[in-house]
Amino acid sequence: MKILILILSFVTLFEICVVDACRSYCGNITVDYPFGIRNGCGHPGYRDLLFCMNDVLMFHISSGSYRVLDIDYAYQSITLHDPHMSNCETIVLGGKGNGFEAEDWRTPYFNPTSDNVFMLIGCSPKSPIFQGFPEKKVPCRNISGMSCEEYMSCPAWDMVGYRQPGIHSGSGPPMCCGVGFESVKAINLSKLECEGYSSAYNLAPLKLRGPSDWAYGIRVKYELQGSDAFCRACVATSGTCGYEPADGGGLRHVCMCDNHNSTTNCDSVISPTGASSSVRPKAIGCKFQNAFTCTLVFVQIYLTLTVPKLLPFFFVAALIIYFIAMNIGFQRRQR
């Protein structure tokens, strides 16, 4: 019991003394740089992108809102779910799907991965993707081992009466057309004149038996656009990466330090040009460090070791101190 209390005390101390102001959690998903769900947190190119609603992380762009299934910070990808997207069990028609189309200013930062196939369903012969058909070859193709021909073997096609021996409907264009995002630049069902779509991404090196095993969803690759060096320098000096309004308008990268914001890192108070100080007296968000609270926890650990009878009291005290510290840190970050 004594050892357990000691371990918990050190965990409490660590959480109180070093809390990243911008790292957040929504449900079971960690939201970290370059993303943020708090004002001023993350990369400015990803601002107003993620929202946490009832412990569900949502991704919002011009084409609609998607549920975030996963964020892979090592691979720099984010996996999305569109509730109006078809899969192997259900075909959704009527142009209800979101597709995928982001604002122009966001396109340098993220796009669906090259191994993500979009299978467009029931597109009109007048669709832009079929311009010049049948003389001109349509862009439909197999992507990462996934094709419409395989997809149309799913049981959902029986329910809508669209099952065909192949992927073509008579002499017209294909009933289902698999495309990569790079070939169409935007999946807009209205502009493409399509009734619906499905999307799946590669799970290599796993060998899949068929479309029932495919990973349905939209996997998006994101990039940091040259700000990675700035953020690494900031983190190396115990800062947190974020952004703030620039003096001349727009936004600029900022390093959030203990009690100030810096345009370089937490060890420097001079701007990159040397013309002015890069320190501001109030941070948009800061890494919370409270010397008084940390001192209390050190005392708690010491007494835990020297006065065993008071173990339960000091354990409860540690939890109270923890929640008070987190509340103070949150209030400071909101100023």
UniProtKB/TrEMBL annotation:
Protein location: Membrane
Signal peptide start and end residues: 1-21
GO molecular function, one term: polysaccharide binding
Keywords: Membrane, Signal, Transmembrane, Transmembrane helix
Pfam families registered for this protein in UniProt: GUB_WAK_bind (PF13947)
Predominant location category: membrane
Record has Protease as a keyword: no
Residues passing through the membrane, by range: 310-330
Gene Ontology CC: membrane
Domain Wall-associated receptor kinase galacturonan-binding, first and last residues per copy: 22-82
InterPro entries per record: WAK_GUB
Presence of keyword Transmembrane: yes
UniProt membrane topology term: Single-pass membrane protein
Protein name in UniProt: Wall-associated receptor kinase galacturonan-binding domain-containing protein
Organism of origin: Arabidopsis thaliana (Mouse-ear cress)
